[in-house]
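explain this:
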Amino acid sequence: MSLADFLTVEMIGFVAAFFTSASFLPQAIMVIRTRQTDGLSLTMYMMFTLGISLWLTYGLATTAWPLICANTITISLAGCILGIMLGNKWKAGEPRRAAKSRLCKIRAAKTARA
């Protein structure tokens, strides 16, 4: 591959990285401003953030600058959204309610067996 071809491929990578990362900006700005995450899937954001961190690791391992740049920005934005989502769920008491619900089911099962 010639230098011109290499630079063309790298430029395509950087343009793709820009649009991929920039696509997250409106969502991140809205969530940071409003703190509203009701319509977002926690599981999706957890899986997405894990996937982006793995892509970042791959980019670092292969010294692929478009991957490194895009995934550093995207993981920062997705991490903010994920942090706000987890904070909202914690404030709403969901982790505590889920634990209490499981405990009630265990007690009910023990009572039914006795």
